[in-house]
Design goal:
Pfam families: SWIM (PF04434). By secondary structure, this protein is an alpha+beta fold. The chain folds into 5 domains: about 5-105 and about 120-150, no CATH class; about 185-235, no CATH class; about 245-385 and about 480-510, no CATH class; about 385-465; about 535-620, no CATH class. Helix content is about 45%, strand content about 15%. It has 23 helices and 18 strands. The chain has a 7-stranded mixed sheet. It has a 7-stranded mixed sheet with strand order 8-9-12-11-10-13-14, sandwiched between helices. A 4-stranded antiparallel sheet has the order 15-16-17-18. Helix 2 runs antiparallel to helix 3 (about 200-215). The protein is elongated, with a radius of gyration of 34 Å.
Amino acid sequence: MDIVESIDDIQVQYPPEGEFSSADLQWTKFGTAEHHDDVAKIPYDRVEEFIIGECSNVEYPTRFHIERGRKRSRGSLKEFKIDEYLEYRLYWCSFGPENYGEGGGILPSRRYRLNTRNRAARPQSMRGCTCHFVVKRLYAHPSLALIIYNERRHVNKSGVPCHGALDRDALGPGAKKVPYICSEIQQQTLSMIYLGIPEENVVQKHLEGIQRYCGSDAKVNNMASQYVQKLGMIIKRSTHELDLDDQASIRLWVDRNKKSVFFYQDSSEADPFILGIQTEWQLQQMVRFGHRSIMAADSTFGIKKLRYPLCTLLVFDSRQHALPVAWVITRSFAKPDILKWLKALVDRVRTVDIGWMLSTFVIDDAAADLDPIRDVLSCPVLFSLWRVRRSWLKNVVKKCSGIEIQREIFIRLGGIVQSIWNGLDSAAAVEDFIKDFADQTAFMQFFKDFWLPKIEMWLSMMQSLPRASQEASGAIEAYHVKLKSKLYEDSYLDAFQRVDWLAHKLTAEVHSCYWLDRYADEHDTFQNVKETYIASTSWYRALQIPDTAVYFDEKDNLFAKVQSQKDSNISHVVWNPGSEFAFCDCAWSLRGNLCKHIMKVNMMCENRLGRKSSMSYHSFSELLTALWRKPLDDSIELDKAMALTRQILDQVQRLVELTSAKDICTVVDNLPLKWASRKARTAPRKPLTALALASTSRNERNNCSARKNYRKRRRLSRLR
């Protein structure tokens, strides 16, 4: 739209009789290229009808009050410009300017109260709305009015709707009588709506939550029902497309969700696109379950379908299920870029817990750069085989016909990985494998194109890093499968190429799903949700299989049979038992997953004599052997190794004592005493925080100056 610099170039509009709004007018850009507003020229006697029409907005019902006004008498100006006013009035939406809602900065309050009829009375209605316009009665043409709309949207400073049907936090009329709704109840209600739970059940659970604070009341029940309907309407009407251009849309999303973004870098010629997402609840779970524990990465999700691959950082909760605590959307895996978002994430966590640290980090990609992990997190790194195992098994089943051929190829692939610990030549093993199965052209073409160029890198990484356990690999894979079902169920396939869709999907549906899982487990509610959550990993399902349902081949140790718990007439055969590359004929395993039958058989193999050890145990044994052989006798290296081993032994003993103790008091009584200072040895005291130390030092300086002034006054009094 062209910018007009003269009011004379703006046509006078004559809307139809009755009330009308801004939607009924044609707006013109007036001003300069640097600063311009939307303006319209109408007869002055139609201004009141315009204001009434603006107040009757369906999506944002409100009232406009006069924030500021000035008048001039006719003939007071000898010389005037064409846009000088005879009357000037600034109309502001009555849901502003203070902001008591979430999001946006605090706008300055008015210094005085305006005695106008249209002023909203309650402070709860001051939501920070920035919608306002100016009405000028023109000095040169008193019969005409110039409407200057500075902000036509009813949004706060962050660009988020702050009242009306699209506002998540709007209190609406009768705000003083609305029952207390804490963030936990609101998140519970949102999660249930996102998961498609019927509205009647959502209202019932919502009522149970608010009745803990304000009791049962017919009016409260009615308001709770309206609240749930409003949230449902908001979710249905909300859209991820804030702008037709995806890059502009994600900028708006980041600006509106600053609390959930720990790092953002827009794409440019020099820098790649990086978006780090972490909600406040995820931050709490990262502090809770990540401190002195294990964190893992599902590093390259959606590398073929999504515009930008998704990396998920996971911690393991109280049931050892993988819990997403951060999402990073980027295509760059370069060391400087990883350092940027990883340092930002750790700094954010340590603002909550300054002593937060990891024990171990698990990776699943051999191409991952280990230096940023070791530099920032300062912890050992483990390697998980779940990704390579899943890729090989899925393509073997897909591209090879006959379950016997599929079994033999998959077991041979496992043998290639096993060769790095048996002292065999892995390159020769790969060459023999290609020759022996040359007739399987479809799979061999896939293997040569995608795996042969990088097989040496993967085997080298597997040999250099300790293996992650079967339980950890199964938990990471369970998260991957669940995330895949949540994201790829969307029928709008074009959305896969939009970052705003991915960010919206993660923070809305995926976040709500995991929040409700944890809430149901911790509060023993939503029994169906809780049972599904507990049984979501193959490790837990394997523990439910009794040992008597497993039968081993005692003759050649080639296979094991697991009897089905649902139908005793059905048994599943697990070939190559005891290995991470065991092959099962159940439907879940043939989709590429690590099934419960393989996990159960491998659990029992650990306690059976004559069974080969797992790859995780092989790597652990090699690590211990390397530590044992490294130091020379009577050397400083031996002293360092001895000190480190002693430190590890002490930590293991304390952990065993803590987990086996029935009463925590017995553990606390055996801890060594730590004196805070000499003066405080006879009384308990709390450790000083940085703020307390700063205030203490300031108090000492003030006391010191006071003593000096007191001595000076005493000397002066003696002289007198």
